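Friendly challenge for the regulars: who can give me the structure tokens for this chain first? No prize, just bragging rights.
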Amino acid sequence: MDAAAVQRLERYFQQIGDVLGEESRRGSFALYAMGLLGDGERKSVEPIAARACPDPERVDAMHQRLLHFAVDSKWSDRDVRRQAARYALEAMTQREPVEVWIVDDTGFLKQGKHSVGVQRQYTGSAGKVTNCQLGVSLSVATRTEHLPLDFELYLPELWANDEARRREARIPAEVTFKTKPQLALQMIDRAVEDGVPPGIVLADTAYGSSSQFRAHLRSRGLHYAVAVVPQTTVHQLDKNGRPQKDTRSVSDLALGIHERGGFRRSTWRQGTQEALSARFALRRVVAAGVPQREQEPLWLLIEWRDGEPEPANYFLVSLPKRRTKKQLIRLVMQRWRTERVYEDLKGELGLDHYEGRRFPGWHHHVSVALCCYAFLVAERARRFPPSARGAVEAHAQPLSA
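First reply, four minutes later:
Bragging rights claimed.
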């Protein structure tokens, strides 16, 4: 970093320090954050302490200090994350508005059985069922930048309902079992209350297939463009905009459209090797099986990839008619940008390096990682303003650029 960037980092740490309060917390946060921002291969508490302390005889004391900050110190994850988000959003939105909010989840691979929330469960990070923790995230994105705002640890019922495990992991009494969609809505509610600029909510089938999830978004004034499972049932709208009486699954509807040659090819962006394209169909529908007062016209966007026997994705989109099919396609495809964010958070900032077993420690570690990411996103927004080359090239820049 140049001198100006160093000064911005110092001012940023001061802002976070004002939220943390106590002087000892301020210092510990700075040490922890610099440990995540630094070049060390492993970014859990012990190696951070070792790199931060040149005197080998004082490493243990430094380790205990950082461990206390991560596990025992009473500071608010929400307040710290809110301040970090405000800092980054100020830089991001000077040039571009927020377009989307993205809900997703990622795995934190583990070997033992004692880390809070760990069990054998599916994670897309590994592409299989494996021993891991799961973190649900909420991020926001402009055309060129992507900022993770919040994370919640998914606590399986096996943990949520076991008093001995709860005591050992220091799980707060107010924390109960919540499904991943419920955790996502909890974070979305916080973002709305904190005044985060609104965006269209994107999510995969684990979230979008829930009619309660979709209804809650609309109750908060948010539009959505979410993936749903093939069994999702809808009523197609006739030419007058009225729902037809028969109920059909979106997969059956897709097969009927396919038989009539109703899919058309569309390209949404240029990939590293070739243009990314597939065949798509678009229909106006209302969701079946929901109260009539919650029914509204939706777009059903169906993606059918080359060489596949059935569609790859079905999306329900609550936006009004002003969007074209190509605009809707580009919108829903933005969800995959989150994978790059996870790679940066884990590969460069040690998001999944925390080795402690406690609930507060996991969330504090994630909070510091989010603070570091927020600063880097703000720096990148200042150094790489949007250009006519478009979002793809800007997004392809590494986090450390």
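The chain has 15 helices and twelve strands. The first strand starts at residue 100 and ends at 109. Your move, everyone else.
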